[in-house]
Specification:
Number of helices of chain A: 4
Distance between the termini of chain B: 35 Å
Radius of gyration of chain B: 20 Å
Structural class of chain A: mainly alpha
Largest sheet of chain B: none
Order of helices and strands of chain A: HHHH
Shape of chain B: elongated
CATH superfamily of chain A: Fumarate reductase/succinate dehydrogenase, transmembrane subunit
CATH class of one domain in chain B: Mainly Alpha
Strand content of chain B: under 5%
Helix content of chain B: over 70%
Number of domains of chain A: 1
Oligomer: heterodimer
Strand content of chain A: under 5%
CATH architecture of chain A: Up-down Bundle
Number of strands of chain B: 0
CATH superfamily of one domain in chain B: Fumarate reductase/succinate dehydrogenase, transmembrane subunit
Number of strands of chain A: 0
Helix content of chain A: over 70%
Largest sheet of chain A: none
CATH topology of chain A: 3 helical TM bundles of succinate and fumarate reductases
Largest interface: A-B, 26 and 26 residues
Shape of chain A: elongated
Structural class of chain B: mainly alpha
């Protein structure tokens, strides 16, 4: 395997972190200023095209960020290569599944 | 930033800013050197505590992702919104979400600190300790404030 995936993931982890931090501040501001926690008010938050796109981007950032972080944890603590690779595959499949789930939640609105 | 990944593996000696590093090496110079890390005698310095909590909070958030997506799913459909409401009014669920709120906020604050360290900001011993205190305090206070607003 090439040695460049480390740098790519290192940068990716930080780029996704910055995006998620910005999204979090905007989202927290919008969500905490909702007049009431009703279905209409809550779902309206995500109904706009821009917010839906930004939210999906947040989820994709989150899952990529989680992939890098969890993989780093496994590389530090799980020494047997077979078990580690198996765990990597499980996490990867889980995160891809979550991405599909998140898209489905947002786009059925 | 490497501190965040490696401190669990690195002996105190490889970190120049670890508290008591110099004292420790002076003290052990006169004694027989230990053959293994005396984990119960090593006190994790403040930046190390922030670092391991960053890892633990990240792992916790990852493990509970399906639960959070499940709640998000319930909350965004008119048929299941009531079900979502009953889930989040359960005291045990509230407690879990309170913990996750802290995990998110700690991960957020510590993450910003690590990004600054990447830019060589506040990397010296004293600033590193100060920003560690700030991270711990701000994430706790924000957890209380937002937690009370949402409770």
């Amino acid at each position: 395997m090439g040695a460049h995936y480390g740098l790519r993931d290192w940068i990716g982890q930080r780029v996704t972190a910055v995006y998620m931090a910005l999204y979090t501040v905007i989202f927290a501001f919008c969500a905490l200023s909702l007049p009431e926690m009703s279905y209409d008010a809550w779902s309206n938050l995500f109904r706009g095209g821009l917010m839906r796109f930004l939210t999906l981007l947040f989820f994709l950032s989150l899952f990529y960020h989680a992939w890098v972080g969890v993989r780093d944890i496994f590389m530090d603590y799980i020494k047997p290569v077979g078990i580690r690779l198996a765990l990597h595959v499980v996490v990867l499949f889980l995160l891809i599944g979550y991405a599909g789930w998140a898209a489905q939640i947002l786009w059925r609105l | 930033m490497l501190s965040c990944f490696c401190f669990g593996r690195t002996a105190a000696g490889t970190w120049p800013h670890i508290e008591g590093y110099n004292n420790m090496s002076q003290a052990t110079a006169h004694k027989t050197r230990p053959k293994h890390l005396a984990l119960h005698e090593i006190r994790l310095p403040l930046p190390g505590i922030v670092s391991i909590l960053h890892r633990i909070s990240g792992a916790g958030l990852f493990l509970l992702l399906p639960f959070l997506l499940f709640l998000f799913d319930l909350s965004l459909s008119p048929e299941t919104f009531a079900e979502y409401k009953s889930w989040v009014s359960n005291p045990l669920v509230k407690l879990i979400l309170f913990g996750l709120l802290w995990a998110y906020l700690h991960h957020f604050c510590a993450g910003i600190r690590f990004l600054l360290l990447d830019l060589h900001i506040a990397g010296d011993l004293q600033p590193a300790r100060t920003t560690s205190r700030i991270v711990l305090a701000v994430s706790l206070v924000l957890t209380l404030v937002i937690g009370v607003m949402l409770w």
